[in-house]
Amino acid sequence: MHRWIALADPTMKLMTDEERRVSIAETLAARPGPSGDVWVFAYGSLIWNPTIESTERRPASLRGYHRRFCLWTHLGRGSQDCPGLMLALERGGSCSGVAYRLAPEHVERELMILWRREMLSGAYHARWVRLNSAQGRFPAIAFVMNTDHDRYAGRLSQAEVAAVIARAEGALGPCWHYLFSTVEHLLEEGLRDRRLEGLADEVMRLQQSSSAPSAAGAGG
Q: Catalytic residue among 18, 56, 105, 118, which?
């Protein structure tokens, strides 16, 4: 996969596995409080396509961060000619999602799978956050936007984001599928993100208007 990414976008600087091992070790060393379970917070595609093995999953919420389409992608859900946008966590507000608990004996293995997927180029920072759930509060690893990264899109308006998502497509499929799947699976968990739902409605309106016949071409 990484070889394909390097060929598709030679300008992207990818982390090596050794750099990922160091990053994982530093993240685990920074675990707050006494050693215990390692949880990972999912707020986007990890909800519906986690790729990792876990021993428990539960709905959870995070205060102090919100999810936003603020990360440009030229590969998976976009292209060099028509970049897409991906979700990341930014400061402020709150966010609901799903937490996964990793088996203690497989923590390093499962985190390496996640790092190879999420920490490709340093666009995210791995941060310990405090999650709230029906079972109480607990620490978890979350992938937060690195606002110094050259793929950081900044705070685009909803109209700008909707226009990008409606048209962008890459090797993993259309950008709108990523948005719609996230909204759908949040609802399946009993979670609401009205901003994302409103964005999905706007993207659907754009798609419907672009597929409607023009007045000039309409018959009698």
A: 118
